[in-house]
Amino acid sequence: MNQYLVSAICLLSVLRPCLAHSWIDILYATDPDTGTIRSTGYIRNYQGHIDLDETYHLLDPTAASAVCASNQQTATYSSEYPMLTARPGDNITAHYEENGHVTLDSLAPDYKPHPGYYAWLWTGEPGTELTTVGEMLEVDNVLAGPFTFDDGKCAVAEGNPFGAGRTVQPCVATFWLPYGLVSGTYSLVWAWHFPKIPACETGATLEFYTSCLDIYVDNS
């Protein structure tokens, strides 16, 4: 594995193999003062809860590998699945399915789930975006995280070997937009590392999944 990627992933502790899959299904922007949902949005080119369309799997990528799926490399949205809009300071909430990686997986050496971590990444400047894995792994591009993939509540089914007592519900990710952002469109990457073997161990394959999206921030 490229030594730069090993060093970067160990430093971030966020961003291996099995048929893993997950993606961001829906996002909400909430007023931090009133708790009112300001808007609802989706990832780029969202087509619905469809594994084939929404899963983007990067297995042992190089620094030059594209960070977004081919159908998410441009800011494409529809009236049914629009871009999220928000204001500086808003609480952003996103939903994703655990798809068994929290409640069903039996992975060596302890034969329990190893759901891993995710982070939110960006350039911090409107009108610009992260395009390669190398750019994504720069520490300065972390907006929020790392967070554990398991939110402590989510489950894909009832009666799971792990996560006993949980009801069927999506995992919930939450972060805040910084105050003081200028108006414009900010591009974000949700990056999930699924480590069957810790990524810093010799011989571990780097495997992660991304969802790419945009938020129009209005500071008027």
UniProtKB/TrEMBL annotation:
Keywords in UniProt for this one?
A: Signal
Q: Where is the DUF7492 domain?
A: 19-219
Q: What InterPro entries does UniProt report for this protein, alphabetically?
A: DUF7492
**Listed Pfam families:** DUF7492
Its domain of life reads Eukaryota
Q: Where is the signal peptide?
A: 1-20
Under what name is this protein listed?
Answer: DUF7492 domain-containing protein
What organism does the UniProt record list as the source?
A: Myxozyma melibiosi
